[in-house]
Design goal:
Strand content: under 5%
Structural class: mainly alpha
Mean pLDDT: 82
Radius of gyration: 22 Å
CATH superfamily: Sodium/glucose cotransporter
Largest sheet: none
Order of helices and strands: HHHHHHHHHHHHHHHHHH
Number of helices: 18
Helix content: over 70%
Oligomer: single chain
Number of domains: 1
Shape: globular
Length: about 500
């Protein structure tokens, strides 16, 4: 690798560690500071932090690779995600921010569900914490796979060394600065990702030209035996469209995303955060899609196609730009990978600390002890995820898809019903989480995911379970709903 590229990457790593040090000095004295940033995030940091932690390495590697290999039919994933993110801000974000503060300042999703339904049995907290720990181990391993592939393609390191490098830097700044470090680094990383996803497809198009793009696409389609530009018809069946667009359903249940809603400083900042987030998402997703499509034309016309389709963004960046600029673009891939890993590590750490250790082992634990346990949990989860990621043949998009579906089906309906339907009961939510998780896991094991994305049956089954069990079960508790209505009325009158 050239000196300019290494210099740009070194600057990036130092900047991330510097943010971690700043956050360590500012907000890690207690668990609310370490795990939720003191509920003091501004709208811009909330928006880009949610976006960067959401998109992960699949935005820079998995999605361009899928478009590169099979065409625009995969763009339905992006369409579904934009719709899902918008609805998440409308249906979940404002209410969750208010409810969690009323629910004894709940700082985790399991904590919120327990307080929301006055669950003295602790079953809601235990089941939801276990779902978080299991699926985030898988989700974080997808980020580690991205790091390994990045190291091989861009840095000339071994796959294992890449996992150690990415994981090591992320663990250091997450352990030091907690949620604030994760959110501030996510903001910086979101800006880098945005710029890179505009630069790479634009540079590739300008280099090829209109005629070169058309000719390259024709050659690529002939080589693959399919239409890369077709979004409906042919191999892009109605079921395939539903499966791709259904990724948007997952937003309602992603703990590492909705925790940002809990941390924003004021519910009145939500509309600003929503506009920033949706704009960032739309442009970034278009950039990722165009990278895959124009990349297919580029390599068909000029040769030298990457052996792994999921590295098309990396290879194009190194071909098109000066080494120093290429280093900046490659840092965007690191940003996508590291922003998600750090968020997932912290949310898993919060469940292990607040929902398992403090709740079931030592309720009298001091704030200092809990922060120390949280830091240890970050390291533990990182090690487990790294071990799960040791297979270099793992597909990033497939790993992310499985974990995304698990969270979407387990928590999505539970969060929506608990915030939007006052008839919802503890038993209903518990049934929904168990049924949703079981259906997703069963669907994957049976191999039916190739026919229909597992989040669709999982989300439907979970919703039906919550509705039916709540409808025919005992009466719900309305105490927190009354407080919520009063808080909303007061905010409107302010």
């Amino acid at each position: 690798m050239q000196t300019g590229t290494l210099l740009a990457l070194a600057i990036y790593f130092i900047a991330m560690l510097g943010i971690g040090f700043y956050a360590w000095r500012k907000s890690t004295a207690d668990t609310e500071g370490y795990l939720l940033g003191g509920r003091d995030l501004g709208p811009a940091v909330t928006a880009l932090s949610a976006g960067a932690s959401d998109m992960s390495g699949w935005l820079m590697l998995g999605l361009p690779g899928a478009i590169f290999a099979t065409g625009l039919g995969q763009a339905w994933i992006g369409i579904g995600l934009i719709i899902g993110a918008y609805l998440n801000y409308r249906l979940v974000a404002p209410r969750l921010r208010t409810y969690t503060e009323l629910a004894r300042d709940a700082i985790t999703v399991p904590d919120f569900l327990e307080e929301r339904f006055h669950d003295e049995s602790r079953s809601l907290r235990l089941i939801s914490a276990l779902v978080i720990i299991i699926f985030f181990a898988l989700y974080t391993s997808a980020g580690m796979v991205s790091g390994g592939k990045f190291a091989v393609s861009a840095l000339g390191l071994s796959y294992t060394d890449g996992i150690l490098l990415m994981g090591g830097v992320v663990v250091v700044y997450t352990v030091m600065g907690g949620f604030l470090a994760v959110s501030l680094t996510d903001f910086a990383q979101g800006c880098i990702m945005f710029a890179a996803l505009v630069m790479v497809p634009l540079a590739a198009y300008l280099t090829l030209g209109g005629e070169g793009l058309a000719g390259g696409l024709a050659a690529a389609e002939a080589a693959r035996g399919l239409s890369l530009t077709q979004m409906v018809g042919g191999a892009v069946t109605p079921i395939a469209i539903v499966s791709a667009a259904a990724w948007g359903l997952g937003y309602f249940g992603q703990p590492h995303i909705i925790v940002r809603f809990m941390a924003i400083r004021d519910v009145k900042d939500m509309p600003t955060a929503r506009r920033i987030n949706i704009g960032w998402m739309a442009i970034s997703l278009v950039g990722a899609i165009l990278t895959g499509l124009i990349g297919a034309a580029w390599f068909a016309a000029r040769g030298g196609a990457p052996a792994d389709a999921e590295t098309v963004f990396l290879v194009l960046a190194q071909i098109l730009f000066h080494p120093f600029i290429a280093g900046f673009v490659l840092a965007a891939v690191l940003a996508a990978i590291m922003s998600t890993i750090s968020s997932q590590l912290l949310v898993t750490s919060s469940s292990l600390t607040e929902d398992i250790y403090k709740t079931f082992f030592k309720r009298s634990a001091s704030e200092r002890e809990l922060v120390a346990i949280g830091r240890g949990a970050v390291v533990l989860v990182a090690v487990i995820a790294g071990l799960l990621a040791l297979d270099p043949e793992s597909s990033i998009l497939s790993l992310v898809g499985n974990a995304w579906a698990g969270f979407g089906a387990a928590f999505g309906p539970a969060i929506l019903f608990s915030l939007r339907w006052k008839r919802t009961t503890r038993e209903g939510v518990l049934a929904g989480m168990i049924v949703g998780t079981t259906v997703v896991v069963g669907w994957i094991i049976l191999g039916w995911s190739a026919w229909l994305y597992e989040i669709v049956p999982g989300f439907i089954a979970s919703s039906l379970a919550i509705w039916l069990v709540s409808l025919f079960g005992g009466p719900p508790s309305h105490a927190i709903d009354i407080e919520f209505d009063a808080a909303v009325a007061a905010s409107k009158g302010a």
